[in-house]
Every structure is written in C-alpha cells, then in structure tokens.
Amino acid sequence: MKFIFADSLDMVDPVYDFIEDRSAPERKAYWDDVYPHEILGYAPYDGMLVSRAIVGDHRITGKYTSAQAMRFRRVGARAFLRLDTPQFSKLDVFGDCGAFSYVNESVPPYTPEDMVEFYDHGGFTHGCSVDHIIFDYDPTLTGMKGGSEDARRRFDITLENADAFLKASQYLSGRFIPMGVVQAWSPDSMAEASRRLVKMGYKYLAIGGMVPLPAEQIRACLAAIRDAIPADVRIHVLGFAKADEIESFLPFKITSFDSTSPLIRAFKDNKNNYYMPAPGKKLQYYTAVRVPQSLENLKLQRLVKMGVFQAEELVALERTALQHLRAYDANDADLEQTLEAVLTYNAPLATERPYADVRSSLKMKTLEAQYRRTLADRPWKKCPCPICKDVSIEVIIFRANNRNRRRGIHNLATYKALVDQLDFTKEFS
C-alpha cells in the first residue's frame, strides 16, 4: 500500500534558531527551506501529490507565489519538489485538480484536455481526471436511487470528463497513468460509477468524497466498489485521513492513498499532535505543549488590550515556560516545576484568567494530565528520527511553523513506518 503525501509547500527552515525564534535575515523562502524528505534524509512517503489548485493560475488563486508557479511550470513537478535526485527519482508524483477549491462552481474550471497537458508538462507519473465533488451521502440507498439534482449533475460531469480525459491521455503514449475519479452519493452509486470507468478503459480508480465520511462508511463504499470491478483494477483513496483505523482497510486491496493528516494533526488537533508507534501495529498519540509567542498570539494580545494581563507579564511567563522545558530536557528541572511553569502560561490562553484562579478547573486539570503524560514519557527522547535527534524537546513545543511542521514531519515518518508494516498488496504495485 503506497502512502502519497499531498503537499502544500510544507517546508521548514533547516537552520532555524529556536532560542532566538527566528530565521537568518538572508533566508529566502523555498530556496533555503527544505521538504520533509530533505530534512529527514529519506522520504517518509512513497510519493507526493500536487493539486493544480495549489499551484494556481488565472482561474484559481493557489498557494504558490507567482514566481513559484512559474518555476513549477518551467521545471516540472519532480524538480520543483526536489525529487529529481537519484535517491528520490523513483518516487511517484501524483496530480489532481484540487476539486475542493471549486466546489461552489457550477462546472470545474479545467477541461480534460487542460489537465492532460498539465500532467504531461509537469512530468507527473499519475494524473486524476477532472471531477466535481458530491457531498450528498446516504448509506441506506440502493442502486441508483436518491441523489439530489445537483449531485446527479456532478456525477454526470465527472464521468463525461473522465471519458474525455482518458481519450486525450491516450495521445501521449503512456507518459503518465490516467486515474478515473469516482464521485457519487452512496456505496451503490459509487460502485456504478466505478463500473462505468472500468468500461471506459481505466485500470486505476481514484475514490473521491471520502474526506468527511467516518471510517465505517468509507469501508462500505470500498466494499461496494471492490465487488463491482475486476480484482486487477487498482484503487487510490483521495484524502484518506483515518490513520487510527488503517489496518481495517486492508481487505479492500487499496493500492495507494494520499493524506496530509499526519502532518496537519501536529498543529490542528486539540490533543493528538505527536505520533509514536504502539504495540499491535498501532499508533499512540501525545499532546504537544503549547507555548505560543505572547507578542504575536491574537488571543493573548486581545487580553492585553482588554487590560486583563500586562504584555510584560505574559512575556515573562512565556520565557519561564520555555526555560523550564529546556532545563527539563537537560535533566536540570523536575517534572513538577516544569508543569507548573507551563500551566501558568497556558492558563491565560485556555481560560483568559490567571492560573491561581483556575488551577482546579476542569480545563486546566485536563491540560495538566495531557502535559504530564507527554513530559513524563519523554517520547522525543525515544524517537530515532532525525527531527527529534536534532531539535529534541523543541519538537514537542506547540509554537509557530518551524516547530509545528517539524513535528508533522516526524509524524509522517512514524506513519510511513506503520503503513510499511501493513503492506500486503505487492501484487498491485
């Protein structure tokens, strides 16, 4: 099973100064920053996915700057992602349209011919057909029942585009593998879309619309699709985020899936921010210790403006929390001292009140339990990845991009190791 990382310029400054909390004045974004596979020295994924909407153009404003988008089009995806060295040259480069970016449009902004040209010029190894997301979902429907008028219109658009996309790609003599995207509103309608795509000639299907669904419903869709298509047709799951339950998806013989979840949960999850392996081919999670930059955090600055706290007071609490965490890492401070310093600074952020006033509150007791487990277990000391070896306790501190993304990159490496343990689909690779 191949894990494809959906990239969104998730880079870090390799020489970031954690003590001064700054990059070098001469740093140039992108040029001096590094991708996960560069800072680790190995790829924590089997390939990368780039959405056209991330790159951007005159139709959709992407995440890339104009200069980056121009370079991407000039040198191609592999060189832009720095996968053009011998070490990384065999990694796959997937592409899709980024359908979430135009979900409110009546029709996709790209034609099948547009996307074929984009994939070919970009040197992609795999390219998804032009889909239109369907958010309607009802697991109780059978056959082609149900589906709103708009859902059925999007269903037809997606299949019509897939047919035209496959025909257009055949003129390129197999320079990339075309993938037919499935969008529908129930397991049976997804199975029907899959049957039609296979009939068109697709040997690799990309299953869309899975992001908002719980694991049980995703399994129901995959079961219906697998029953409807030949065993040798490959399946890719777009936007798969169910890291906790990945083993339960093995019976559906998924060839590949893409996700950003391990990286994003490092800084967007309330408590499961740091991955570690657990017995039984599982993951265990730790809560990152929040020490935001007091002069830049909007919530803390609002409290200052309201007169609840003084800016100097928050700066001092922030400094004390960081000093204790680093001393704890070096065995120069004990757990209780460190917890006290961290929680004292967290109280204004979590409750908008001084720690002395809320020490016994449910919110602070919950934080205390989470932070106590993280600090007592010292997972960053047990992890062999280059991130944790290099920055030690800084990786567990929830504070701005260079720490948070490093923690996310650590998560990618941990997750990839788990996926590799579960790989039994070699007959499809």
Q: What's the short story on this structure?
A:
This protein has 17 helices and twelve strands.
Description:
The protein has about 425 residues and is an alpha/beta fold. The chain has two domains: about 45-260, TIM Barrel (Alpha-Beta Barrel), CATH 3.20.20; about 290-400, no CATH class. It has 17 helices and twelve strands. It has an eight-stranded parallel barrel with strand order 1-2-3-4-5-6-7-8, surrounded by four helices. The longest helix has 22 residues, at about 400-420. It is globular, with a radius of gyration of 24 Å. The protein starts with a strand and ends in an 8-residue tail after the last helix.
Order of helices and strands: EHEHHHEHEHEHEHEEHEEEHHHHHHHEH
- Round the mean pLDDT to the nearest integer and report it: 94
CATH homolog superfamily of the largest domain: Queuine tRNA-ribosyltransferase-like
Task: Give Rg in angstroms.
Answer: 24 Å
* Biggest pleated sheet: 8 strands, parallel, barrel
Q: Determine the fraction of residues in helical runs and give it as a percent range.
A: 40-55%
What CATH calls the topology of the largest domain is TIM Barrel
- Kindly estimate the percentage of residues that lie in beta strands according to DSSP: 5-15%
Describe the global form: globular
Key terms:
429 residues, TIM Barrel, eight-stranded parallel β-barrel, 44% helix, 12% strand, globular, disordered C terminus
